[in-house]
C-alpha cells in the first residue's frame, strides 16, 4: 500500500508538471476535498477543475526538488517541493501581474481513500510570494 500511495502522489505531481489537469483530476476520489493555503475548502472534482482552470490562466508553475513521504499504512502522504513560477495574470486581491518570476518552498498533505486522493492540503508562505513578485 505504501508503494501504491507514493506512486499515486508522484503521478499527481507528474501530471501537474505536464499541465495535464485532466490526469490530476482522474486520480481524485469522488468525495475529494482541496484545502488551499489561506483560503477556503473546495469540495468535489468540479471545484478542483475550476481551481485548475483559474490557476492555468493566472500562473505558470513547475515543481522541482520533490520529496514524497508516505505513512506506514499508505492512508496518508506528504510532499515537499519548490514551486518555480511566473505570475501571468493579476489574481483578484493580489498585486498586479507583470510576468514576475518566483521560487517558493511549499508542501502538501494527502489523505488516500480506496486508492484515490481524497484530500490535498497545500501550504506555502504567501508573504514570501508577495515579496518576490512585488
UniProtKB/TrEMBL annotation:
It comes from the Bacteria. NCBIfam families: ketosteroid isomerase-related protein (TIGR02096). The lineage of its organism: Bacteria, Pseudomonadati, Pseudomonadota, Alphaproteobacteria, Rhodobacterales. InterPro entries: CHP02096, NTF2-like_dom_sf, SnoaL-like. SUPFAM superfamilies: NTF2-like. Residues 9-119 form the SnoaL-like domain. This is SnoaL-like domain-containing protein.
